[in-house]
Amino acid sequence: MSTPATNFNEREFVICQIARLVEDKYIYWVGGGGEPLSSVLLAKRFNAPNLQYLTEDGVVGPEAIVPFDPLMTMVSSKANYRALQWSTMNYAADLAQLGYVDVGVLATLQVDRYGNINSTVIGKYEGGEGRRFGGPGGADSIAALTWRTILVTDQQKRKFVERVDFISSPGFLDGPGSREKHGLPPNSGPWRVYTPWAQYGYRSDCQLELQAIAPYVTVQDVLNEMSFKPHIADKIGTLEVPTEEELLVLRTQIDVAGQVSDRGRWIEFKDGKYQFA
Amino acid sequence: MRILEEGKGDYLKVDPDGYRAYIRDHKPHQMVSKLTTEKDAVERLVKDGDYLAYDCNYYTRGPASLLREIMRQKKRNLWLCGKYTYVDCAMMVDAGCADKIDIGFIGFGPWISRSVRENKCKIYEYSNAIMTLRLKAGAMGIPFIPARSFGGTDGFLRSGCKVVEDPYTRQPVVLLPALNPDCAIIHVHQADEYGNSRVFGTGITHQECALASKRVIVSAEEIVTTDEIRRDPGRTSIPHFAVDAVVHAPFGAYPGTVQGMYASDPAGVVEAMGAMYRGDFSDYLKKHVYSVASHEEYLQKVVGIEKLIEMKRREGIKEGYAI
After folding, report:
1. B chain contacts of residue A166, beta-carbon cutoff 8 Å
2. Is B223 in CB contact (< 8 Å) with chain A?
3. Which of A66, A204, B164, B208 is in Cβ range 3.0-4.6 Å of B139 for a Cys bridge?
4. A71 or B185: which carries more pLDDT confidence?
């Protein structure tokens, strides 16, 4: 039984979208905490009770206890609780390099038409002129080595750019054949991008395609928050809002402290439609 | 082998023969006791200009007490292996100890761009696993290791990596230069006086780090007997001959956690994080590093017993750690 929710925020919306894609038959590599981890943990309570995911510190299939203490997303007992295996970083990367990891789930700062990911610098890299961020961390391995990736970011003009300021982790680089040319495994790469407003996929030319939108925005709203015009699917779908059941679990069992979802605008069902509160 | 593409970054010279000879001539092949203090270990084994690797970070089973000792002794011109870090690189640069970083992941904040602009620090771009693979090659005694990641990134262009035509498959493959740090500092759950060490739970790259590095300091929560090590040899993560000094450092990862032993101190974590976001560690360093002469004094005077008891109490999960 599921009841569409009438009050939720953008962050909760996007976590539910990704959670619904998660399946028991795949192995996931989840980058850091945030939306990626909340999404898979939510899926474990519903559609993927036997969820298996890895994190960078070589933990295989944990049953994490949330919430974590601040910044304790890895190499900590709650994050790694009741795993199938404990190992180290090279092992996690080896598993993905071998082809065991079906899907990578990542959050990012900036993404471009080809799904390239920037988590290093906004603005000019050389000379320390731009605004600097942490670097790829584990995202490069996830983006290069898993069979396909789900990326989550915000729907903002500065996040969707024609070309990222710095390729920290590879998408399709310059297009078809480009990953292979640079030594990355074939038939792998970006698969979906989610924002609180929209779902994107990729066409065979390796370029981003807008596929579906949230019921509280229009296609034009979404395009207004992109620095380039993506492909647009012939038929644009409407993403389903979170259910009351999903929100209950998310709020009371997963993001109890509101560390992940306590950001973003609120949406309410009013006058027969979903709109920003 | 045909080179198809090359990064332009500096990297620590690759010299597997030199490292092999170093191991023959300088590593402690015989079982000898290496128990000492942070002060002595850092004085003898960390040298200005060293390439320094440390396993995990200031928040999770990292060698925090050794990092503080390095800052206290004002070591200079270190080149840091910045895989999976948070505040540590920022702190070491701000303390004037480090001026080069190989980056996998570092803590955000204005300090990075400012250090680069002011020429205080040079940065080379990698990813976490590319750095741990470089250490793996260093720990295998080989000059390089191939990988199927990192190619095509802007980090690659600023690194010491290359894309070559693989002589077996004829496909392009990325090669990473092996890394043999001058010094590694590693915090473990248990060690005996010779350096046989046990890490419980997950880790980043403690074993590779220890085997790849010329000088290795292990700090341990508990010093156990060699009989205890022999009782369960499958749990030995690092063998004694890779280790040059053993420091008994209870709560050595403070403010971070050691899985199965104690939880982190969230206030201590946030305090260091705040200094990084502000881009100014001076107050933090004054209080947490320079105000005391040793880790023992730090725990007594700055941290306090109440906090330590609370951290122990909050680590309720023991399964799998067998301590």
Report:
1. 154-155
2. no
3. B208
4. B185
